[in-house]
Specification:
16% strand, alpha/beta, Rossmann fold, 269 residues, 33% helix, 9 strands, nine-stranded mixed sheet, single chain
């Protein structure tokens, strides 16, 4: 058991070091990275598409990288916004890591990019433990997922710097209890902002973009109580509450040849 724990700590420490380097490089070029985490089916892609369209209308230089186990469907959807989009196929891996992200950005991300939105793999467990060198970590949950979601996934919600509720156009139909959800968020992450959105009705569209743009302008992001100083000096730590170890996946080599699915679509292994 100790060997498993030691392995996990070593993998996370290596990731933190890579995240520190990537954050420093992106900050030096004036790029703010936004890490988007959610369960599958949360409506993350639909909302991001609206945000990217709005960013283009405002003349902001933005880009998006989206990660999935398979298919390029999300990249095709996001590319309709007209901004640079890249699809990463993880071939079964349940999350992105900082070294992977840095490798996929190399030679692709336009130098003028002000905001980079990273749509992480749909999963609230593994991605929560991996800093990607982001400046803003956002956790999304739809009204259909239950008001106790923050209590079930305390690490993901506890390290969030912004919490976004999606699909509010059907909140009444599914009897979503907003007050209960907000109370549960505050229980694991006191003081974090919770915003309501609907990609369909337009409610709250633009708030995510505004918050990311504010960070790019120098505003301080929320610092969660759970956060601490990691190996990379960032504001996250790795909470044990709902994280787990996939030794077979987390110890894979990530420096080998990359298979190109198509221009702008890559596989991590």
């Amino acid at each position: 058991m100790c060997r498993v724990v030691d392995l996990k700590q070593a993998v996370l420490a290596k990731n933190d070091a890579a995240a520190h380097t990537l954050r420093r490089e992106l900050t030096a070029r004036g790029t703010v990275t936004v890490n988007l985490l959610s369960s599958p089916g949360s409506g993350k892609t639909a909302l991001l598409e609206r945000e990217l369209l709005l960013a283009r209308e405002r003349g902001l230089s933005v880009a998006a990288l989206t990660a999935d186990l398979a298919t390029e469907n999300d990249a095709v959807r996001l590319a309709r916004s007209g901004v640079p989009v890249k699809q990463v196929l993880t071939d079964g891996l349940c999350h992105l890591e900082a070294s992977m992200l840095g490798r996929h950005l190399d030679g692709w991300l336009p130098e003028s990019t002000r905001l980079l939105f990273v749509e992480n793999v749909g999963n609230l467990v593994c991605p929560a433990s991996y800093d990607l060198g982001e400046s803003l970590r956002v956790v999304l949950a739809s009204v259909t997922e239950g008001e106790d979601k923050p209590l079930k996934y305390p690490t993901a919600f506890g390290l969030a710097q912004l919490v976004v509720v999606t699909k509010t156009d059907i909140a009444e139909a599914v009897e979503f209890d907003e007050d209960a959800f907000r109370a549960h968020v505050q229980q694991v992450n006191p003081g974090v902002e919770v915003v309501l959105t609907s990609a369909r009705s337009g409610e709250g569209v633009g708030i995510l973009l505004d918050r990311a743009n504010a960070v790019a302008d120098g505003a301080s992001a929320h610092v969660p109580v759970m956060a601490g100083q990691g190996a990379g000096g960032n504001t996250h730590t790795h909470g044990p509450a709902d994280s787990h170890t996939h030794a077979h996946a987390h110890t894979h080599p990530d420096s080998g040849p990359q298979a190109q699915a198509r221009p702008g679509a890559v596989q991590t292994r």
